[in-house]
C-alpha cells in the first residue's frame, strides 16, 4: 500500500510565549522532506481562540483526530507531568483516537520532558493507541536551539526523529490496514 499516511502534529503547550513553537517548527522542517506522509496540525491555542477561558472547539478537534492515521505529540514537562491544555485536548474526544499510533517529542529541563512522556503512555493506552518506544527528547531545551530555531545538535536530533518516525509510520500503515479489514469498534462488542 503506497497510500500517504496522515500524521497530526499536536502542540502540547498553550502557554503564551511557548517554546513549543520552536520545537514544532523544527519538526515540520524535517517532516516536509519525508515521503509518504501528509501533515496536519492540532494546536490547543488555535482550537480555543484568544479568550483564556474559552472551551476547545471539539468539532474541529474530532475531525482532525479522525482524519489522522498517527500522531506526534510535542510536549514540555510541567511539574513532572504534562500540561493541562494537552490533557484537555486528549480528553475532548474518544473513539477517533482508537487503533492509531502515537509518537512523542519532549522537552524541558534536566529530564528532557521524559517524565511527561511516561505519563502520557498511560493516558494513551486508555485510548486504545499504540505508543512508539523511541522518542526525541531535548533536555535544557532553552540551550538546544540557535536564534533561527535550528538545533545545535542537528544531526543527532534528526537521527532520533527518523527512528521514531519510521516506526510510527510502520504502525500507522499496519493499523490502517487492520482498521479497514475489521472495524476496531466491533472487535469486542
Ligand atoms: C509551570 C511550569 C512547570 C515546569 N516544570 C518543569 C519540570 O517539572 N521539569 C522540567 O524539566 N521542566 C519544567 N519546566 C520547564 C519547561 O519544561 C520549559 O520551560 C518548557 O520550555 C516549557 O514549554 P513551553 O514553553 O512550550 O510551555 C516547567 C515550566 C513551567 C512553566
What does this structure look like?
The protein has 189 residues and is α/β, with parallel strands linked by helices. It has helices at 20-32, 44-48, 58-67, 84-91, 114-126, 154-181, and strands at 5-11, 37-42, 70-76, 101-107, 130-131, 136-138. Strands 1, 2, 3, 4, 5 and 6 form a 6-stranded parallel beta sheet that branches. It is globular. The two termini are 29 Å apart. The structure holds flavin mononucleotide. Flavin mononucleotide is lined by residues 13, 15, 18-20, 76-80, 108-111, 141. Residues 13, 15, 18-20, 76-80, 108-111, 141 line the site of flavin mononucleotide.
Task: Looking at this protein, list some descriptive labels.
189 residues, 6-stranded parallel β-sheet, alpha/beta, single chain, Rossmann fold, binds flavin mononucleotide, 41% helix
List the topology elements.
Layout: E1 5-11, H1 20-32, E2 37-42, H2 44-48, H3 58-67, E3 70-76, H4 84-91, E4 101-107, H5 114-126, E5 130-131, E6 136-138, H6 154-181
This protein binds flavin mononucleotide (FMN).
Task: Describe the structure concisely.
By secondary structure, the chain is of the alpha/beta class.
Main sheet record: 6 strands, parallel
CATH class membership: Alpha Beta
CATH architecture: 3-Layer(aba) Sandwich
Helix content: 40-55%
Number of helices: 6
How widely separated are the two ends? Answer: 29 Å
β-sheet strand percentage:
15-25%
